[in-house]
Amino acid sequence: MSDLWFKGLDDLELVEGALRLCAQVDPSVNATWVELQLEKMLDEAEQELARESNEKARFDALLRLFYQQWGFKGDYENYFSSENAFIEKVLQRKKGIPVSLGALLLFLGRKLGFPIKGVSFPTQFLLVVEWPHMKHDYVNPFNGEYVAKHTLQSWLKGAEGNSAMLKPEHLQVADTSTIIGRWLGVLKGALMREERYTQALACSDLALSLVPEDPYEIRDRGFIYQQLDCFQIARKDYEFFIENCPEDPAAEILKLQLKAINDEPVVLH
After folding, report:
1. Residue 1 has pLDDT above 50, yes or no
2. pTM: predicted TM-score of the whole model, two decimal places
3. Which spans of this chain does the record mark as coiled coil (predicted)?
4. Among 193, 195, 222, 248, which has the highest number of CB atoms less than 10 A from its own CB?
């Protein structure tokens, strides 16, 4: 698979890039319906925010509209479901994860003229509103609440240990292609957990079209091929990983997998 799907992503809104990704993984995605829903939401938001003149009040009104009136919320119960990474499903269910809910809010916010951008924070996707001549506001798109820097520091320590310190690079604005790269990994992981291996393979192929010899991606692809009973291709991928990452603890496990594969009958595909 070529990397043409990745071209021009940085010229797209994040939600548009995500829609392109989802359509590559699942061709049944109804992109036209998604686009119409986005237009409808934007029209309604423009009418709702027309009542406010102060920019911060307008932004607060957008948050209320999105999370309270429309009822979008973080999916606490099934956080790792692939439905939270497919934009079409997020719009239908009004549930998602930080990056998918954030992509929708980012789209609306930018179209409405707010200085809002996406941040690929180590623990989750964040939104930042870069108010001119005022301090930045950080928003957790999982619940629409403002997040103080001391809270972000706590998140970082929880993920990386008590010695972790919040640094400017943690809060740098990320381009669409960077975020979509992480989104692709989230989607692939969810599909693998759900044993939807054909779609997971599509994710792996997309990732390898960008970094063709990433040993960890090739290892994951080998696992997917093994689940699809494509044992000969799985063997080659596992051998590639073992050769390129011999010190990785997974290499020893894969050697056992290779032995199991060698005991399997040959299946022609």
Report:
1. no
2. 0.92
3. 35-62
4. 222
